[in-house]
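Quick look at the format.
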Amino acid sequence: MRKVSAKILVVDDEIEIRRFLKIGLKTNDYIMLEASNGQEGLGIASTHRPDLIILDLGLPDISGFEVLETLRGWSKVPVIVLSVRKEEQEKVEAFELGANDYVTKPFGMAELVARIKAQLRDHVLKHQEETTFFIGDLEVDLIARKVSLRGERIKLTPKEYHLLSVLVQNAGKVIPHKQLVRELWGNAYGEDNQYLRVYVRQLRRKIEKDRMLDQYIHTEPGIGYRLEHTSAI
């Protein structure tokens, strides 16, 4: 069976660092995506769904802290911060915003690869445990791609299922309209919420017990949608 290589997104404005990492990551059979600023990094993260992100804090447009905070609004992807900043407070802030690890420049490639492997392994193990979610009478099995309401199987279109799976994996969090549109259709439709409203309405018709109430999918006016908190096994 052919090995599937993990995709690593590097967000760093230093081209020398990106070149160094590209050689090291390729040698270790990783696929590297790259961005030279924060906004570009967020865009690539939303469309290409990397398995791990290496993030510099000193970016030319927005800070790495802002990137991390925005990213954590809709993604649980492991993030390793790569920075010249050695102050304890900088590290504390990065971890509080959701960083998984912190590596100070200069660094050795062997150490970084070891940290990447550890984060990827932990992420896989964690999400293997979280495969079936329950929201009231609704059951969503992400491995079997099965959705049931009160024990009865519900048939969803691929787009409806994709939308529900994104909401489920970010349960309790408000996901902005723009992010959901990009997730389902890509950057070209980033400002168009029309299709999203149609699919949310269709999904609600299939999973809501009372169609007059937002029992599971809650609308945050002018912002996005939020799925009720779930329990997972």
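Next, a different chain entirely:
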Amino acid sequence: MDYSLANVSRDEMSTKEKIMISALELFCQKGYSETSIRDIATAVGITAGSIYGHFTSKEEMLLFMLDDYAERTRDLFRSLDIEPILKENPTGEGITACILKSISTLTDNAYYANLVHLIHQEQHRMSLFGGYVLLRLSDTQEFIGRVFDILKAMNVIKADSDPEYWGFYAYSIMYLIPTCQALQRSQNTTGYGVKDLSPMLCYLFNIMLEVNKL
């Protein structure tokens, strides 16, 4: 399912895609708990019974969204050729550029931007989001592991450097910014934004390189 369709006419979407798009918009506007299956059906222009032909519940609908997002972010993390970026710039700025490039396809997409907001707005629902959070942490640590392998081969850092440790802190920063944005959005205030992510990651990775240098 291609959620770039979020940016085109709904006449070109399947019924399941229309349900997903409408549900996510309502979850963000009204909140997950406050949105009913009937609300979603009304937004799509179908009966509530028709929705049950695709999803048994709101929870199944949301888990489908999360699984899809996790799969796509993992594919992006794994598919990006980061070695040329690091060879040209083996610094905190270069590592940050790798991360931001790997996720830009998703963060620039309206559908996924709304989903990230929802994740952080509703993160207290650990029964729904707990597994997702752990999976994203694992993917980030795996990505930092790739970075470390390249930097070790370039003799930039030591062979005994710990990518899981630094991957945890990288993920913490990447998780903090959307959380702040979700809180500010719910309170109609402004503050931290995506623009703040880059310098914070650069600072972290420059410390990492200093600690782990040969």
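Residues 1-6 have pLDDT under 50 and may be disordered.

See the schema section for token definitions.
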